[in-house]
Amino acid sequence: MAALLIIAFIGFAIMGGVALSYVAGSAAVLAFIATGYGNYLAIMPQRIFSQIDVFTFLSMPLFILAGELMTRGGVTRVLIDLAMLIVGRFKGGLGYVNIAASVFLAGISGSAVADAAATTKTLVPAMVDRGYRVDFAAALTAASSVIGPIIPPSIVMIFYGALMNVSVAAMFAGGIVPGLLMAAFLFAYNGFVARRDDHPGGAQTELPPFRDTVIRAVPALLIPIVIVGGIVFGVVTPTEAAALAVAITVALVFVYRLLGRDRPRAALRHTLAEGSKAVETAAMLTGSIFMILFAAAVFGYLIGIMRLPETIAATVTSLDLGPTGYFLIASLVMFAAGMVMDVTMALVLMVPVLIPAAILAGADPVHVGVVSCLNLTLGLISPPFGGILMVVSAASGVSYLQLSLAILPFLAVQVALLILLILVPELTLALPRLLGLIN
Predict the structure, then answer these.
(1) Which one-letter DSSP state was computed for residue 436?
(2) Nearest-angstrom CA–CA distance, 167 and 160
(3) Does the predicted model carry a pTM greater than 0.90?
(4) Ranges of each domain in the chain
């Protein structure tokens, strides 16, 4: 009964237009009262502070800021041109460009929604002009943007690592192969549709100038090398890597302004103006995220008091499901939650309850973490409340219902990859093991 009351409260609050961060905090307090543990609320301030006093959390606002600067400063356009140069002349070339651009952007922003917003405005109109159906172009853009939080850096992996005390460096290394596999699966499906529907492409396709594109793209590609290489090899912490990403992105925005024929003073003025807007947006998003972190601390404390992970672990042991069998069931629950909830909210509610039992049953924490992040991120493109679908629908002009139907084949391909990753843990764990990040 208490669970139904809390779910009803969350549902009505969201439908009433209440901000997610306020819904999370209110639901956390309501959960204590509804379960009879209201007297524990007196020590909540101390509990909240101890839970969020994590150095790694400082990297999230910096990565968000780097992504905003990248989008506003023209780095996105440069990476799209590079993708066009590499795969633009294949049949269905702009579809491949869409996917490749998401791979390049994934190494910088770490946010699926940011990547979707950036690529929709650029690539969907270009694909429609070349003869692609607008719903296909929009659905491909939404599906490929999910690569963003899987290939490092990843904001959701940082969140998960800090929440569950799992090495962020190991998770970053573990996300590389699944992210590239997702790109390969989408490449294969795009190739199939290109042949079936006779999409444009070939030697006659106009490409951006080779020399200028490469000169502009090489510095941008240094950002993921610095970030991922620095974290994985232990040179810098995730927070330090995020600060480096911001510094490099600011320098790139200034350089691109100079290459665009701006005078130094004008380039500096434009860079500062873009930086000011990016800081404002990043501050707003960071405030919302940390409000959700407050709620996570409260929910986590309640879950510990109620001993839910131990209860679930005992049930798993009694049913003899094994780590893989249980993780498949837990993944199904998380996928269903992701269809109707925000990623961070689903992470807060589902992961502390479901994942400890999988680890106690013998699953690897890094494998479970990477696959769980992918699972919950797929909720962003899953009807009925996919956040990326809403962003792409608004930016492309495709109705939400039409886009929800068009995304289903792409979602099926990505769910197939999710199941493969659950059944074959080595696809996730091979690289972290090779780098000595896990045993």
Answers:
(1) T
(2) 10
(3) no
(4) 37-434
